[in-house]
């Protein structure tokens, strides 16, 4: 997508040096646009854990490139052992988004076909690029399928703006390009359909206020940032036509783990009869689990992220204390929205019911 009119992906190989990976460091956004270089497995671990990169798809793509860099680091002795350990290190960085483990396993599986470390490095290089390209392509297709939902509402409203509520950042910054929840929005905007996006600020890290707002502003899409608890009120007053959110892990039965607060939006949408869609590439589906509330590990992050708030002041990023110093804080990063609250899933293969039957109709090879 565009940054000041120039096209970027969120991760790429450094031109002229294929042993270095470049990323957009998302921490100082929207105030500073910084490109960071990752050269060692440790750089990759840090970038994922400390959220220089974030979002399920991008975490997966980063892990894919991380495994390629690990293959370069591995000596000829005990190549497999080194790669297993590198995979474990990367997988331990963040627990909820299943794309991370999926990308590591995909790399390990692909490398089995290589007969020598040299061949394995080549495979890892190719696979890392494939994972990233696939992520971008699947998000584009999510846009092509999801735009139909927006088109229908626009026709019903006789061309009046379609109000869409989204939570956190399931935009191109959370993937390699296009985003999941934002892909249908960008596709609608490009077709000239009038849209207006309500963006939940998404405490404590404010991915909505900082990142989704920045993305939409850069693409010129009309939007309004709202405090996290505003959505229910807007829905009661007919100001939301559709909710589209992302997913960090979806069970084979259609339960969805997404940024903390998504569940409450799902409840409010159900109560107000508003369609609540979840957009996700299939790399976010955990085919091995059925009960999201019981089985999806929910990341707990530092309480400091709740106690302090970060922003830009006099040309610098500043962190200020919000709560009494002595107060405890809890920081659950995700919650699970049960399938019964989800109107449908928008995937790269089409839109389906949030149920095992619905998902398997699109992905019959997973039966
Ligand atoms: O903690 P983050 O920022 O990595 O959380 C992921 C998210 O951005 C959201 O949960 C998003 O809606 C999921 S779609 C990648």
From TrEMBL:
Superkingdom assignment: Archaea
EC main group: isomerase
A Pfam entry, by short name: IF-2B
Biological process annotations from GO: L-methionine salvage from methylthioadenosine
EC number assigned by the record: 5.3.1.23
Binding positions for substrate per the UniProt entry: 54-56, 94, 207, 258-259
Transmembrane segments: none
Site (Transition state stabilizer): residue numbering on this chain: 168
Enzymatic reactions: 5-(methylsulfanyl)-alpha-D-ribose 1-phosphate = 5-(methylsulfanyl)-D-ribulose 1-phosphate
UniProt xrefs under InterPro entries: IF-2B-related, IF-M1Pi, IF_2B-like_C, Initiation_fac_2B_a/b/d, M1Pi_N, NagB/RpiA_transferase-like
Keywords, ordered alphabetically: Amino-acid biosynthesis, Isomerase, Methionine biosynthesis
Residue positions of the active site: 248 (proton donor)
A single GO molecular function term of this UniProt record: S-methyl-5-thioribose-1-phosphate isomerase activity
Function: Catalyzes the interconversion of methylthioribose-1-phosphate (MTR-1-P) into methylthioribulose-1-phosphate (MTRu-1-P).
Family: Belongs to the EIF-2B alpha/beta/delta subunits family. MtnA subfamily.
Name of the molecule in the record: Putative methylthioribose-1-phosphate isomerase
Organism: Candidatus Iainarchaeum sp
Encoding gene per record: mtnA
